[in-house]
Amino acid sequence: ASRPGPRRPTMVLPPPDRRHVCLTTLVIMGSMAVMDAYLVEQNQGPRKIGVCIIVLVGDVCFLLVLRYVAVWVGAEVRTAKRGYAMILWFLYIFVLEIKLYFVFQNYKSARRGAADPVARKALTLLLSVCVPGLFLLLVALDRMQYVRTFRKREDLRGRLFWVALDLLDLLDMQASLWEPPRSGLPLWAEGLTFFYCYMLLLVLPCVALSEVSMQGEHIAPQKMMLYPVLSLATVNVVAVLARAANMALFRDSRVSAIFVGKNVVALATKACTFLEYRRQVRDFAPPALA
Q1: Is 18:78 a contact under the CB 8 Å cutoff?
Q2: Which residues cross the membrane (predicted)?
Q3: Does 288 reside within a domain?
Q4: Which of 138, 148, 173, 271 measures 20 to 30 Å from 249, CA to CA?
């Protein structure tokens, strides 16, 4: 009888980092609870009870999934892989943005002046802290013990900071839909803006996490070029064009001039980086054989 072939070694995760699991769960469930409070407060009468029951059932189901995924992420954080972190990010943004969409629609249907502008600003502040903060938690740069040199660690930290800035840029574009009492954009432009940002919030951080995971323990930040290219096309270029179109066509006064400047600076910086990268590749290319 033929002997069975040797089994491939499977990766065994180390024990989870309890502090990381608790902090990640706190950020996720805290932001979800605040979104639930917005949804409940925006409804009155018997409808409020129905909304409260729906969000409670949804949170219980989400918490059951989070119980396992957060532990896997906490164990994975001690390794060079970030696969479970990508799953957790996708689940979080998928559910959070669904709730945010209903909050946004409730603000649109509210009478002018009925919604507190401070509450709208507080919602934007919550998203601006929790969403980039969770991304940095999932990367867990401070727990990458295999990144030993200070220069490499700071180079990687700078690249992650650009990801956080892009997340803030996308959140600012979404916030322009609910912060002003009355938006000048047509319905199709509002929907296109919201779901375009929704898609990028789902995908771009997963791309950044996958680059960190694919590099492994021998991580080289200068070789992580996929995210900068995607960000250049989908955030820096498109965001500038979208904001310019809103100002020119719809007279939208809510356009953030600061983030327009950020994208112009990012375009110039990334263009210089790509030119330098091409020069380095050309200079260090092996000579062709005669």
Answers
A1: no
A2: 21-40, 46-71, 83-102, 122-140, 193-212, 224-245
A3: no
A4: 271
